[in-house]
Amino acid sequence: MSIDLSQFYEVFIDESFEGLETMESELLNLSPGDVDSEIINNIFRAAHSIKGGSGTFGFNAIANFTHVIETLLDEIRNGERELAANHVDLMLKSIDCLRNMLRSIQNNDEQESQEANTLRVQFEAILEQKNTTDDSNTSNSDAVATQPESNGVASKQTKIQITNFFEIKFNPESHVFKTGNEPLFIFEDLAEHGELSVEANIKGIPELDNLVADDCYLGWTINLDTTSDEETVKSVFEWVEDDAEIEIKLVAQFEDEIEVESELDEIEASKHEPSLTESSTSVDLASATPATTPESLPTDNSKQNDSATSDPVKAEFRPVQKASTDNKKEPTKQESSSIRVGTDKVDSLINMVGELVITQAMLNELGEDEQIDHAKLLALREGLAQLAHNTRDLQENVMRIRMLPISFVFSRFPRLVRDISQKLDKKVDLVLKGEGTELDKTVMEKISDPMVHLIRNSLDHGLETTPERLAAGKSEAGKVILNAYHQGGNIIIEIIDDGRGLNTEKIRSKAIENGLITEESVLSNQEINELIFKPGFSTADEVSDISGRGVGMDVVKRNINALNGTVEVVSEPNKGSTFTIRLPLTLAILDGQLVKVGNHIYIIPLVSIVESLQIDMSKVNSVGGGMDVLRLRDDYIPILRMHQLFNHPEACQKLQGGLLVVVESDNEKVGLLVDELLAQQQFVIKSLEENYKKVDGISGATILGSGSVSLIIDISSVVKMAGLKRAGHVGLDFDKPLSEAV
Amino acid sequence: MNEVLSTSQLGNDDNVDLVQYLTFMMDDEEYGIEILSVQEIRGWESMTSIPNSEEYVKGVINLRGTVVPVVDLRIRFNLSKFDYNELTVIIIVKVMIDKKTKIMGIVVDAVSDVYNIEKQKAKKAPDIGDSETKNYIEGLINVGDKMVVLLDLEKVLLI
């Protein structure tokens, strides 16, 4: 019997990513010197299940790598080792590395990565350090001792190879199958370690009448000749330890002169060494503990001997490394299609469907009556009301399934802030608020990048350096607050810093320099601040690799607008800035304004509407090229005739008294001439492209209460259409001519 | 229909590739499409037109929550226009276009019949006439004394 394990890969990878996230956030809670054993335990558990899972699925590179992390954690947990700052750094790095490894599994190219080897060597260096300086401790913990020891054995095997003969008595309890274990797999695992002979003990088998089909009545005696040590053999039984009697006896041991590259272990051992020889410098640098050198030197030497003898193996290993560095350059974006839903949500759905079925049965019964009297009519109405209620509840609950707490996005920021603040040498306290606020998974996936950008920006530009802060009479550590909450049908995310605030003077002069505004422009401070969202705007004195490459806030703004959201900034000099992102809770629902163009009903997203007004002809000027503009306070708003753009000749064509919906897109205000304004309501967005194709000026479709389809106007695309139709037309008093907005 | 004929043929020779076709009428001609691609047949209904679309795209309809575009085959085939009446139907079909499954509707005069057709016996369309329309034709075949034009839906609906 064989099970196709690959069907579980997705689950394993999802869980491992979650485990890594737990490890990461817990690691950030750790402070050296003051070790909370509960935190260590949490990290240990996460690491352990990743190791267990990867072992089961045969991702040995990950299993081996997590093993060393686990070993170090175990020592810290047992109080045998003080937690040092470099341990945390190293573990954080290994989490990144594990993520890459998991991603490469997702892309079906599992490789032992160079990075993993480097990090592993560093871990081993740390572990080694302990063992040689303090030998008495090693006997305390089996797990701790194994890794370095087996390593030692492996490296010494250039001269001597130890073959162990084990006799293993394995008597599983009768319920072993029910725990999902299969002795055959265990034997297959053992067979990988050496030569195996298995003898079954059939004494326990009862009469056929008394036999329970899914109980295990067998015991086994196993003889194994192997070069692996007892600990490794024992680890094969890890999963059945609690459900079986296991007795492992070392019967005999032989030492052999070895022939190179003949044994499995040999290859294992030599796998370490290319990375070691190449990266031994980085060991010293990165682990930053002076003690690395003397103790680890002997191993280095022996491994170099080894490399001299096992060249063929080494040569074999090279290309693998190359491949792994290649794929590291381009870690493909992980696209997870599964979603984890709390059982409470599923339960409430099931309840609701139950109620729906009852209502349906009731209505059905009413419908079967030939005659409907007044009482029945009342009952029918009541039933329909109930149905409406049920449907609404059901809709809300189904929407909730896609909702996840924003902590999924927030959780990555402590690490980000830690890394950046180290790089910038600023002290930063990050405060997270409202982590439980829920929003749609698709929105969540897309909001993460703009947020990273804004946070980087706050750290780099917003917060002052420590001396500057002290001089300004502020606390030494800067504060960045991430706050999320619901407001109406929106989620609001605030990024607040207590830094220097936006420098309006500098922004103004920069804007003049870039031609965004003229010397004469009179702008309020707020208007000046909004300028940072214009394309090609960066005020950083120096271009750093953290922020300020000239692509900045405009991209943030564009991304957020694409989600039907908005972003604003409020800033006070020397008090700090607040960036406010406002997003719809879900992408599936849109607040819109129904408008009529001729006989056709279209929907304009409410978020892009600035105002609607009746055209006063005295304020309309024709600027040539068929373009009319409307003077609205300080702005000149180009009028786009929707009937022209959408080719509906039956529509009202006069400007006089016509209705103009002023909308904003990409910082561009335009007026859409429509015939009639109808209701405002929420719409469920349907794809038009799914069965048709992309249509200019239309972003999607929806179904109205009447059952007919209505199309949703894509403002930026409409602006583009108008721009294209009037190519070359410039000279409007805009920040940017229309044709450039394309 | 040709039920008897088809079963006996199947019994004799497994290699005969019998495919069921749904046929419909347009301008007194009979056209056939593979029945497996047909999802349902609906009466004519009003639809929402799409701005700046080709003339043969009549608009989109709501098919139980899915937005489905509808193509008027008469206009697509450059046939004379015809006012929609109570016999006018929309055949909802599922086609693979650009490796994506799309659901679309086609407007035809009336649905006609279902035939079992041996695909091998279909003749290629003669190499004359409107070259564009010819591309949509998979083959011509005789059923009894009538000729049926078999359509390649994927090409017809590649819009």
Automatic annotation (TrEMBL), chain A:
Spans annotated as Disordered: 130-152, 261-340
Gene3D superfamilies assigned: Histidine kinase CheA-like, homodimeric domain (1.10.287.560), Histidine kinase-like ATPase, C-terminal domain (3.30.565.10), HPT domain (1.20.120.160), SH3 Domains (2.30.30.40)
Sequence positions bearing Phosphohistidine: 48
Record field: compositional bias (Polar residues): 143-152, 276-310
Major enzyme class: transferase
Superkingdom as given in the UniProt entry: Bacteria
InterPro entries: Bact_Chemotaxis_CheA (IPR051315), CheA-like_dim (IPR004105), CheA-like_homodim_sf (IPR037006), CheW-like_dom_sf (IPR036061), CheW-lke_dom (IPR002545), HATPase_C_sf (IPR036890), HATPase_dom (IPR003594), His_kinase_dom (IPR005467)
Comp. bias (Basic and acidic residues): 313-333
Catalytic activity, EC: 2.7.13.3
HPt domain location: 1-105
Occurrences of domain Histidine kinase (ranges): 384-587
GO BP terms: chemotaxis
Cellular compartments per GO CC: cytoplasm
Name by which UniProt lists this protein: Chemotaxis protein CheA
Species of origin: Psychrosphaera haliotis
From TrEMBL, chain B:
GO term, biological process aspect, one: chemotaxis
Localization per Swiss-Prot or TrEMBL: Cytoplasm
Lineage of the species this protein comes from: Bacteria, Pseudomonadati, Pseudomonadota, Gammaproteobacteria, Alteromonadales
Superkingdom: Bacteria
Alphabetical list of InterPro entries matching this protein: CheW, CheW-like_dom_sf, CheW-lke_dom
SMART domains: CheW (SM00260)
PANTHER family given in the database record: CHEMOTAXIS PROTEIN CHEW, CHEMOTAXIS SENSOR HISTIDINE KINASE-RELATED
Organism: Psychrosphaera haliotis
Name used for this protein in its record: Chemotaxis protein CheW
Gene3D superfamilies with a match to the protein in the record: CheA-289, Domain 4 (2.40.50.180), SH3 Domains (2.30.30.40)
Alphabetically ordered keywords of this record: Cytoplasm
Domain called CheW-like: residue spans: 18-159
GO cellular component: cytosol
